[in-house]
Specification:
Mean pLDDT: 77
Low-confidence stretches: 1-30, 287-325, 327-340
Number of strands: 12
Order of helices and strands: EEEHEEHEHHHEHEEEHHEEH
Radius of gyration: 20 Å
Shape: globular
Strand content: 15-25%
Strand order of the largest sheet: 6-7-8-3-9-10
Largest sheet: 6 strands, mixed
């Protein structure tokens, strides 16, 4: 993971202390949270992946979710989407229990099964998810379904792709259509699992600009997981970093530093800054290949030793006049001690 070390301007000084296994939140920031979890445990089968997680996400907020392979990014998003059962603790989404709020949550998976797209066109792909929780819609609601599909494609600026086959689209175009499918029903929370994977830098920036506009214009709350923090710096409000079954949320500088990550990982971590980038690796050498966090740390360390930015990284923007990447908006949460 690599990124310039920026601080969000205007962060509230009033923060909530967090425990070793928790992500806390400033509870006074919003009357109704898009996500509110207390002591949340996330499981994949019989395996506990995340334990005792506290989290609050405000409407209109974009949170980047980071962590190495096996840290629980996908498991967390699938738990919030209702795909995996809650392993413990309490969870409310949009002020309601998960079972009630599920129809107001949009989810885009990290991978699509081989051959799932076929020759289906983009409009049909989006329409397939319209009111998917109901049965027997048939032709009687065709006009409503068509209108919802057209509106969803417009929201992601992909209406010109409506008639094109999904397997003929570029990676960036396909990602837009997948987001349109998640938005074809009225949703207030959007969960995106690795939407930047295998996209070139220009397509990454296009997707991120789109997501930021959705947050700002429609107060859509978004959690977006990624491996590289760099492209998200201009658009995200907070960082949620997962490691060793625990999590920490806050600004880049407040979370991505040696002391914070050492506590989170439970072993000495080093954060090296060079030429506007941050490189994360164990302080006492490489992690073993068997380590659940090894692949991520190794790729960062090797890139640093070779004088290269890790694959997929994008040159970081200069700080704004406010001294950070994005200003704090009402309702955003800050939980790790404010500015470094």
């Amino acid at each position: 993971m690599n990124a310039p070390a920026h601080t969000h301007a205007g962060m509230a000084a009033d923060t909530t202390e967090i425990g070793d296994n928790q992500v806390g939140a400033n509870r006074g920031a919003s009357a109704v949270w898009a996500v509110q979890a207390r002591g949340l445990s996330c499981r994949h089968g019989e395996q506990a992946v995340i334990t005792a997680l506290d989290l609050a996400l405000a409407p209109g907020q974009l949170v980047g979710v980071f962590g190495t392979n096996g840290s629980g990014k996908t498991t967390l998003l699938q738990t919030l989407a209702g795909i995996l059962p809650v392993g413990g603790g309490s969870l409310e989404l949009l002020g309601q229990p998960l079972a009630t709020a599920r129809t107001r949550i949009g989810y885009v998976a990290q991978t699509v099964p081989e051959g799932a797209f076929g020759r289906i066109d983009a409009a049909s792909f989006v329409a397939a998810a319209w009111q998917g929780e109901r049965w027997g819609l048939g032709l009687r609601h065709a006009a409503e379904r068509r209108q919802a599909t057209q509106q969803a494609l417009r929201r992601v600026e992909a209406q010109h792709l409506a008639a094109r086959p999904m397997d003929a689209l570029s990676g960036g175009e396909r990602q837009r259509v997948c987001i349109a499918q998640a938005l074809v029903n009225p949703v207030s929370l959007l969960l995106l699992d690795e939407p930047l994977s295998n996209l070139d830098p220009r397509s990454q920036q296009g997707v991120l600009a789109l997501v930021r506009r959705l947050c700002d214009a429609q107060q859509l709350a978004v959690m977006l997981s990624a491996h590289d923090i760099n492209p998200l710096l201009p658009v995200m409000d907070q960082v949620l970093y997962l490691a060793a079954g625990r999590g920490r949320i806050g600004t880049v500088d407040a979370v991505v530093n040696a002391a914070s990550l050492t506590e989170l990982y439970g072993l000495p971590m080093a954060v090296a800054r060079h030429d506007g980038y941050v490189f994360i690796n164990p302080a006492r050498g490489f992690m073993s290949e068997e380590s659940p966090h090894g692949g991520h740390a190794l790729s960062q360390s090797r890139a640093e030793s070779q004088g290269q930015a890790p694959r997929g990284s994008v040159a970081a923007p200069a700080p704004t006049e406010e001294g950070g990447v994005r200003s704090k908006r009402p309702g955003a949460v800050e939980t790790t001690g404010g500015r470094p």
